[in-house]
Design a protein that fits this description.
about 350 residues; alpha+beta; Endonuclease, Chain A; 4-stranded mixed sheet; 13 helices; about 45% helix; about 15% strand; DUF559; Restrct_endonuc-II-like; DUF559 domain-containing protein
């Protein structure tokens, strides 16, 4: 989690507005008006109050990957910034309410009428708050729900629907749609590869069940795109371990491929460990491996070592008579690899 701070919080630490401007060229990043994130630990000791929690491991540095993940990180930071603003306003309102109570009912009524409308984080923003993966950027806007309001601003998308109390929960000091309602809303609104990625992750981690999601769906007043929700649930599989695998499974469905089983393990005697593959099609003697973003930088942390390990795995599979198809992240969004798979499958029929 990144460290998010408002101007008031930074000033309470002893900084001035001029100090904040200077810190923005060093270790602080402006997210929105009056809201900042601390990017990293710097060499300036006078900035320690800003980045001490990063140095202690309580918060994370703001990582830049140089690819599409940065857009998702930016949106996550924007959502966290709005959460922090809402939390600060809530605290301010509570303090004002306490003061108003002592000042009389008239002042209390005035405070209540000045309060901002109820706001619930939803859709992709709620998914980020729940820690669900976003397969690829689909919006740059923070998504919230306010009763009776439908508006799009530069950085916020407001939907005017009413979320029942039992479809909301408090997270990070703010209101957000429940995990099940979030999964349903995303499935209604976005492409299956986005929603299936989230469903696979939530089911794989044991955060929810199909039964809970279906029960929540039955309680929704909204009926728009309900078939999309059922399709996403039909495509979801708790065995998949990454958004890239989920997208591949959606592509298999879209191309009419059947028979691909995820996360199949092979016993090996010559290698130090068993081999587990992303997808196995036994009838076609075909293995499909998906290279998601940053895959070769996981594990040992040394891409060359990972490449060598992958080479040995593939050679063992080929020696056993399996055809191995590797699909890169970019190739998930093109046709060539899937046409190659189609030709192989047609040759087995």
């Amino acid at each position: 989690m990144y460290k998010i701070m408002t101007t008031q919080q930074i000033i309470r630490l002893g900084f001035t507005h001029a100090d904040i401007r200077r810190a923005r060229s060093c270790c602080v990043r402006r997210l929105s008006r009056g809201v900042y994130s601390v990017r990293h630990v710097c060499s300036r000791e006078d900035h320690r109050p800003l980045w001490a929690s990063i140095d202690e491991g309580t918060h994370s540095e703001f990582t830049e990957h140089g690819d599409i993940r940065d857009q998702i990180e930016d949106l996550d930071a924007a959502v966290m910034a709005r959460c922090e603003v809402r939390f600060q306003k809530q605290g301010q309102q509570e303090r004002q309410a306490e003061s108003a109570t002592t000042a009389g009912a008239t002042a209390a009524t005035r405070m209540s009428s000045a309060s901002p409308p109820a706001e619930v984080f939803s859709h992709i923003s709620a998914a980020l708050i729940h820690g669900l993966p976003i397969a690829y950027p689909v919006t740059h806007q923070v998504e919230v729900v306010r009763p009776g309001v439908n508006r799009r601003f530069k950085s916020i998308h407001v939907r005017g629907v009413t979320i029942p109390r039992h479809h909301r929960q408090a997270v990070r000091g703010t209101e957000v749609t429940t995990l099940e309602r979030t999964l349903i809303d995303v499935a209604r609104t976005y492409n299956p590869d986005i929603s299936v990625s989230m469903l696979d992750n939530a089911l794989h981690r044991g955060l929810t069940t199909r039964e809970k999601i279906l029960a929540t769906l039955a309680q929704c007043l909204e009926t728009r795109n309900t078939k999309k929700v059922h399709l996403a649930l039909d495509l979801a599989d708790a065995r998949r371990e990454s958004p890239a695998e989920s997208i591949a499974a959606v592509r298999f469905f879209q191309h009419g491929f059947v028979g691909f089983v995820p996360q199949v393990e092979f016993d090996t005697a010559s290698l130090r460990s068993n081999i587990r593959v992303d997808f196995c099609h036994r009838a076609a003697r075909m293995i499909v491996e998906i290279d998601g973003l940053g895959k070769l930088y996981l594990g040992s942390g040394v891409p060359r070592d990972e490449l060598e390990r992958e080479r040995r795995r593939e050679q063992w599979l080929r020696d056993q008579g399996w055809r191995v198809i590797r699909i890169s992240w970019k190739e998930l969004f093109t046709e060539a690899k899937f046409e190659e798979i189609r030709r192989i499958l047609m040759g087995t029929r």
